Inverse folding.
């Protein structure tokens, strides 16, 4: 029987200061040791919170989702940081030639979890469309060509991760925050994601999209998208008062309608805590959000998660948010 | 054909300035110290644009956290809302929430403001090439959440822009419309008051050419469609979306050489979308060279 209302995190969690303050200075064995230590400490927090799926322990091996894979490719060069907002920057790559994978992106994480015999993991990888959208394209003829080239690279990566993982099903989450920013490019989103998982057996593919102005764009391509679980942000758009109607969760109904029209089974990962605020959603509020979603999605097809990675919050706040999420879920399950 | 260069918008910050902002945000640097740093960095920027022989340039706007913020923070009745995506980029701005357009605060003197480095908003260098930057009123409205009465807000914004131009004694003004707009009549008075560069996106919308003075320049993608409304048409030719240093400007504008005596060559967007190292090279490519 399928587990009901599986709790999961989305990916990143705030790094301990000893790791974040010297992240780029650590090299080789020393880096592996420190990243491992931080992962174990984060897993302790996750265990304490009662989280069922532990992701990869908060992405302690990665500085951030874009630069990590880009720095491990040929054909892309980082000339310096570009502003995201206010005084926050990211290193934006320039694609100047044919892109190729120089080295694996996440094999060290898979090896660690395999060694620890942790099976309840979900491995986030950056999606090909987002990699394309966040890069300067000074080589490929079109955005589509570049997205597909990134898709091929992600396919190599996921294939290798799966091979290292072994026979059991590996949950892979493709992170595509840029997925719905250009409605006219949804075909490119679809083709490049499908390219990333093409021909790979034994994986359960999740897709994470957040802060979209229209999830409908995503649901429109769902019938042709090789994705089983849609992990989406909702809490950010929902009021925090207790109420009968959860305005932020209107799209859950649209998800249900989409699921009904397609032959394969798809699940929804429901964002129930806002990662941009320290406000601790009380379990009663999270419970209401889950119960609202259960009006449309059966518990076996509903997973419970924060809106996005919790790296934006302190480790203490991140932990409390996860704890409340698990408490709320447990109460809902009891009443089922 | 004479090519006249124009660089507008937010210029990328140096690593030094980014680090200084980090310190200031953590309270390790005072507002007076960061203000001095902004002034120093602006001076270095003016040295650079002089070296690149640019004919016109706006303020580097180093202390503008986005293209609306200092203006939004200077007008009573506007609050900062949530982060919002700027067009289809990976860059975000704080969406203004406009209830009304009230009193205008000081823009040209030192002043601490919330959620933005301290003012002044402009760091003029006194050069004849210096151009004051203002976000277009149409785009300002479009990028905001309007809580109050839209026509009233629009009218009051127009008056407030005039107040800015008068208070700052603006001689040359650049109005940037990053979104397609239909109403350019709104700039008639501003255009009378200062020599105005209007940077547009898409078509020219509604503008009655007989109703007043021509703009000094209108800069867009198709000079044929707006050349009659301005003294010197311009084209957005130097890409802020590519890190290739040579934009082949001469090649791009060759097609206009038989139709225009003068043409303004401008960037496609704020250079803030580029890494600083690339921006510093690109400013030498406005007239075709590197």
């Amino acid at each position: 029987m399928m587990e009901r209302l599986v709790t999961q995190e989305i990916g990143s969690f705030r790094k301990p200061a000893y790791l974040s303050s010297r992240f780029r200075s650590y090299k080789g064995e020393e880096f592996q040791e420190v990243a491992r230590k931080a992962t174990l400490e984060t897993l302790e927090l996750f265990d304490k919170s009662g989280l069922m799926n532990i992701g990869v322990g908060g992405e302690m091996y990665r500085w951030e989702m874009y630069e990590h894979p880009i720095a491990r490719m040929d054909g892309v060069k980082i000339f310096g940081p570009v502003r995201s907002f206010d005084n926050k920057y990211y290193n934006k790559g320039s694609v100047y030639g044919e892109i190729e994978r120089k080295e694996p992106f996440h094999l060290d994480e898979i090896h660690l979890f395999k060694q620890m015999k942790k099976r309840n993991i979900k491995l986030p990888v950056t999606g090909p469309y987002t990699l394309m959208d966040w890069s300067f394209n000074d080589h490929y003829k079109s955005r589509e060509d570049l997205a597909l080239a990134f898709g091929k690279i992600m396919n190599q990566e996921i294939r290798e991760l799966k091979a290292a993982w072994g026979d059991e099903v590996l949950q892979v989450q493709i992170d595509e925050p840029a997925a719905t920013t250009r409605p006219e490019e949804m075909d490119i989103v679809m083709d490049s994601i499908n390219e990333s998982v093409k021909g790979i057996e034994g994986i359960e593919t999740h897709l994470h999209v957040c802060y979209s102005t229209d999830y409908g764009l995503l649901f429109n391509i769902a019938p042709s998208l090789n994705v089983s679980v849609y992990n989406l942000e909702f809490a950010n758009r929902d009021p925090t008062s207790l109420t009968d109607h959860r305005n932020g969760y209107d799209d859950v109904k649209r998800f249900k309608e989409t699921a009904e029209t397609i032959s394969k089974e798809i699940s929804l990962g429901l964002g129930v805590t806002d990662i941009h605020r320290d406000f601790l959603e009380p379990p009663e509020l999270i419970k209401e959000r889950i119960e609202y979603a259960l009006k449309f999605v059966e518990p076996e097809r509903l997973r419970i998660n924060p809106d996005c990675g919790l790296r934006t919050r302190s480790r203490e706040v991140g932990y409390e948010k996860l704890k409340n999420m698990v408490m709320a879920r447990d109460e809902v399950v009891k009443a089922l | 054909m004479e090519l006249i260069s124009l660089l507008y918008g937010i210029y990328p910050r140096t690593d030094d300035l980014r680090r200084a902002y980090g310190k200031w945000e953590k309270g390790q640097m005072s507002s007076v110290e960061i203000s001095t740093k902004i002034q120093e960095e602006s001076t270095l920027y003016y040295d650079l644009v002089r070296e690149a022989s640019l004919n016109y340039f706006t303020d580097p706007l180093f202390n503008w956290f986005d293209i609306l913020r200092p203006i939004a923070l200077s007008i009573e009745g506007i609050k900062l809302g949530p982060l919002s995506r700027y067009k289809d980029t990976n860059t975000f701005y704080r969406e203004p929430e406009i209830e009304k357009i009230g009193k205008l605060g000081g823009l040209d003197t030192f002043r601490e403001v919330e959620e933005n480095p301290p003012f002044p908003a402009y760091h003029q260098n006194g050069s004849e090439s210096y151009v004051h930057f203002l976000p277009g009123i149409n785009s300002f409205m479009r990028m905001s959440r309007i809580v109050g009465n839209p026509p009233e807000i629009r009218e009051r914004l127009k008056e407030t822009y005039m107040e800015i131009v008068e208070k700052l004694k603006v001689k040359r003004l650049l109005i940037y419309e990053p979104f397609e707009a239909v109403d350019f009549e709104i700039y008639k008075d501003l255009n009378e008051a200062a020599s105005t560069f209007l940077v547009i996106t898409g078509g020219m919308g509604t503008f009655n050419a007989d109703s007043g003075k021509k703009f000094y320049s209108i800069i867009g993608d198709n000079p044929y469609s707006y050349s009659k409304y301005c003294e010197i048409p311009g084209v957005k030719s130097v890409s802020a979306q590519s890190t290739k240093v040579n934009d082949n400007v001469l090649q791009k504008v060759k097609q206009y050489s038989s139709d225009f005596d003068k043409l303004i060559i401008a960037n496609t967007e704020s250079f803030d979308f580029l890494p600083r190292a690339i921006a510093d090279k690109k400013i030498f490519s406005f007239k075709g060279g590197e």
About this structure: Chain B has a mean pLDDT of 94.
